[in-house]
Design a protein that fits this description.
Elements lengths: L1 H10 L2 H5 L2 H15 L12 H16 L4 H6 L1 H20 L9 H21 L2 H6 L1 H10 L5 E4 L9 H5 L5 E2 L4 E2 L9 H5 L5 E4 L10
Antiparallel strand pairs: 1-4, 2-3
Helix pairs in contact: 3-7, 4-9, 6-7
Length: 212
Amino acid sequence: VAMWLAVTLLFGRIYCSSVCPLGIVQDIFSHFRRRNHRHPFHFSQPHNRLRYAILTIVIGGSMVGIGAIPSLLDPYSAFGRMASDLARPVTEFLGGAEVITASWLAILIAVATLALVGWLSFRHGRIICNTICPVGSTLSILSRYSLFHFDIDTDLCINCRKCERACKAECVSMDDHVVDGSRCVACFNCVDACDSGAIRYTHRRKKLSLPL
């Protein structure tokens, strides 16, 4: 935990973009959204009250010994339930087992969870990470102050909004030319989409050559 908190303070939420298994599942679904140019992503306001309320409930549940709440919302636990409850009946069937030991209720819950994650990810990218996930909410508190961050050079920006449409965290605001560091998962999609080189991953803050 200490290591990832330190990494987040230095580089932002790279844990969410490259380590978290549930985040990878979300990326699979959001990839199809990004390929559909008729329905690109766009900037959305953060749901801070909701995500920090959920984080408070999870912390409170952990402190009083109610493990069901953290287990339900923890990304590793959610992914583990989906993977085991969906993979077990398949492996048992392919292995020639006469009886499927997996619970039908568990399978239905896993399918429903996967469908919900898929639908939310396709519609809103990483909204689960930035609204529901307690790990993402915890890291968001630190990532807004991370040493390295994404900065938009307004001297180079041509306001094409390609970066905003590519941002699966929906945290790039071209109206203000800022990237919400608390929700950014450091996926670098905005950098890949920018043809003018206006978005940089840097430890510096851009000073305008001409005032806006």
